[in-house]
Write a structure and sequence with these properties.
This protein has about 425 residues and is α/β, with parallel strands linked by helices. It contains ten helices and 22 strands.
Length: about 425
């Protein structure tokens, strides 16, 4: 399967009479885009806001971030099952507006509260912009309220789909341009790769994408337009992650943007044919009880061993504590089948001592699992003093304008990740 990403570099977003891309500037006809979003009758009071790096603008209540991407004509549907019709993602040609991002904000969510209203924060300037990754993207923000009679769950699904449609709408403005660069991801089938790379270790990637500790959002288009609450581990071609087959669950622990630019998959691709043979991707959820956790671990390990023929596996977890049990048991089962494992592990806890205790308790009972990489801790993160903003986007009354905030770094969306894209590092001195 061969995927070609035509990259158009964006350095600024601005309001204009026509949506277009020229010389790195993304011009947006906000009225036209608002009318597109309003086609979903579950949404009302639609507004489009723009924010550029350096603006003294604070964006809060960010539920998801999406990179503008659109399939070039003939390559297949956009976000199949969610925006476009069902089809296979990961092949053909896709236009990418690199440096731009679509943000959805559930600032008027009503009764169902997913997190504190000041979490999911993005600062476009100052220390908040330095520590996260979305303070340096040119952001198009979709704001909308639920229409009369629309329940909270339907509102959230409509808002997420509006974000996906906006990402496609913007990227189509660059689809006919000569790209600034081209990224090619070409991974043949197992049959075709068996011979030339037979001397390299086959490495699979086992990735959790949802935890059953959380109540799933009914209708959330996570995998080809459907949720994965009861899904058993499933093999995906790595290109499918880049090309809209998978989105982050609503108010998830990563962002759709990160899945579209998946750092673990990119790293394995970069080493494919050099130090390893990238065998494929297995996605799973993380059950909240022991019997289902055992089932998930067993199925994932069997797929890695008997279908992908893996000699090794890299594992990442979704946020939360219970997913560590599934992760540990999956790694243990892989080791029992002769698959060497490496765990990239991010922790969550009240403080550093609790995090250390949790990790030692879970993994000391699986002695076969002895290769782990720490990706930090979201709760035990440094505190930031964020200066007053001239403009706050994502609150109904603008009440946070002009206020200095004291917040942990993990409140900045994009500062911490289970998938390895964080800019934070720990240095011993």
């Amino acid at each position: 399967m061969r995927l070609e990403l035509n990259i158009i570099r964006i350095t600024k977003v601005q309001s204009a009479d026509a949506t277009a891309v020229r010389n790195g500037v993304l011009s947006v006809n906000r009225q036209e885009l608002e009318e597109l979003v309003k086609q979903d009758t579950r949404l009302t009071d639609v507004a489009i806001e723009l924010a550029n790096p350096g603006d003294k603008c604070r964006i809060v209540n960010v539920a998801d971030v999406i990179e503008p991407r659109a399939r070039i004509a003939g390559s297949g549907p956009d976000f199949p099952g969610a925006v476009g019709v069902q089809g296979t993602a990961g092949h053909g040609t896709t236009c990418v507006l690199r440096g731009a991002a679509v943000l959805i904000n559930d600032y008027n969510i009503g009764g169902r509260q997913y997190q504190r209203p000041d979490e999911g924060m993005i600062d476009m300037w100052g220390p908040g912009a330095e520590i996260g990754i979305y303070g340096r993207t040119c952001n198009v923000i979709v704001l909308a309220s639920p229409a009369n009679g629309t329940g909270t769950d339907d509102y959230c699904v409509a808002l997420k789909i509006a974000g996906l449609k906006t990402a496609v709408y913007l990227a189509k403005a660059g689809a006919g341009l000569t790209p600034d660069e081209v990224e090619i991801y070409d991974h043949p089938s197992i049959r075709e790769t068996a011979g030339p790379l037979q001397d390299l270790p086959r490495v699979a990637y086992i990735c959790q994408v949802f935890t059953n500790q959380r109540v799933p959002l009914p209708g959330d288009p996570v995998l080809y337009g459907h949720h994965i609450e009861k899904m058993v581990p499933t093999i995906l071609h790595p290109n499918e992650l880049f090309d809209g087959a998978l989105t982050d669950p609503y108010r998830g622990y990563a962002a759709t943007y990160i899945i579209q630019n998946h750092p673990m998959v990119k790293e394995l691709y970069q080493n494919h044919g050099k130090t390893l043979h990238f065998a494929g991707v297995i996605i799973s959820n993380a059950p909240s009880n022991a019997p289902e956790s055992e089932r998930t671990a067993n199925v994932a390990a069997n797929l890695a061993k008997w279908i992908l023929g893996a000699d090794g596996a890299v594992l990442t977890k979704i946020g939360g504590g219970a997913p560590e049990l599934t992760m540990a048991r999956t790694a243990q089962r892989c080791e029992e089948l002769g698959i060497k494992t490496a765990l990239a592990l991010a922790h969550q806890g009240i403080d550093a001592s609790e995090i250390t205790l949790k990790a030692s308790t879970v993994f000391s009972n699986v002695p076969q699992v002895d290769a782990m990489v720490s990706m930090g801790a979201s709760i035990a993160s440094p505190m930031l003093t964020l200066p007053p903003a001239d403009k706050v986007v994502g609150v109904a009354d603008g009440s946070q304008t002009g206020k200095e905030l004291r917040r942990p770094a993990s409140d900045i969306k994009g500062s911490f990740s289970q998938l390895g894209d964080s800019r934070l590092v720990a240095v011993r001195y």
